[in-house]
Amino acid sequence: MVAAQYFDTRSSRAHPVMLTVRDGHAILHGADGLELRRAPLASVRVSERIKRGPRLVTFDDGAYCEIADHAAFDAILAATGHREGLVSRAQNSWRLTGLALGGLVLFLVFSYEYLLPWAAALVARTIPASIETQLGRATLDSLDQGMVAPSTLPSAQQQRIRNDFAALRRPDDPDHDYQILFRQGKRLGANALALPGGTIVVTDELVKAIGSGPGMMGVLAHEAGHVTQRHGLQQAFQASTAGALTAYFLGDVSSLLAAVPAAMMSMRYSREHEREADAFAVEVMRDNHLPVSAFADALQQLEDAHGRSEARKPAADEDDEASFFSSHPLTRERIDAIRQQQLLR
């Protein structure tokens, strides 16, 4: 038996009662000991336990009791076989709360590492080729609005690079119309950018750094690998976590696509994407009987040039100049892996 305050719905006044359970019924007795009401246990609802708040026992007509003595009420509930739900137990258990918080952290890490890239890749694959081409044009327009300048390379040299790339045997890719464009890199420095749709922007600085021979073909094949596998779109979508998931689950990609050009400007490929594009480039070079080592040499030249540039650059100018490294994270492991492919041939 436990003391309670009973509200009968006919007035706002609380009636002091004693609540007891007997023969499968909840029974209320008034202050004078007379029985006020009884109801089958199956017809009453018991509120979840709140550490400092009263428990409520609600009858089917809306009348209810407030019970402040948790210990006595818990004893009555235990005698009836009542068991709190998992949520209620968790709310009152530091251990379960900690486990739930740990589970949430693990889920967020899993989502960031696996679910988000999966969703971004899925969205990227669903973009029609015509829209991807439009996104490439929009990104190129953004580049031309002050980030790059018209190329000063001789037209003959530009055309020779285009012709050599066009002559390469590459895996079929009917969704993309590849074209090579040249620009002065300015803040981009020595760089090559694969835009959605198949346009590859090559800076004059990159040509001066690695020349226009087999090494350049390796770099262009690497960029074609990014295009073929839509890495740029994936990275852009991944930069908009909520946008990528919303686009997939709701099927509305319009707002997400509007942000792609800006995202492409600050894009940095993942290591996995770089490895995939490297493998694509190695395959193309092998199919065309070009030395894979020339590709590794070109990357090494860029790495050495980047190191010299960083050594000369004042600390205050750290962010003033971008390079191939801004969007293509180069590591010694990548270069060594490409050289190893030459040995395995």
Overall description:
The protein has 345 residues and is an alpha+beta fold. Helices cover 53% and strands 15% of the residues. It has 15 helices and eleven strands. It has a seven-stranded antiparallel β-sheet, with helices on one face. A four-stranded mixed β-sheet has the order 8-9-11-10, with helices on both faces. Helix 7 (214-228) packs across helix 12 and helix 7 crosses helix 13. The chain is rod-shaped and about 110 Å long. The N and C termini lie far apart (85 Å). Mean pLDDT is 81; it is low at 316-322.
Topology, please?
Elements: E1 2-7, E2 15-22, E3 25-29, E4 35-40, E5 45-46, E6 55-58, E7 64-67, H1 70-80, H2 86-91, H3 94-126, H4 129-144, E8 149-150, H5 155-166, E9 179-184, E10 192-194, E11 199-203, H6 204-210, H7 214-228, H8 231-238, H9 241-250, H10 254-258, H11 260-265, H12 271-287, H13 292-312, H14 324-327, H15 332-344
Parallel strand pairs: 9-11
Antiparallel strand pairs: 1-2, 1-7, 2-3, 3-4, 5-6, 6-7, 8-9, 10-11
Helix pairs in contact: 3-8, 3-9, 7-12, 7-13, 13-15
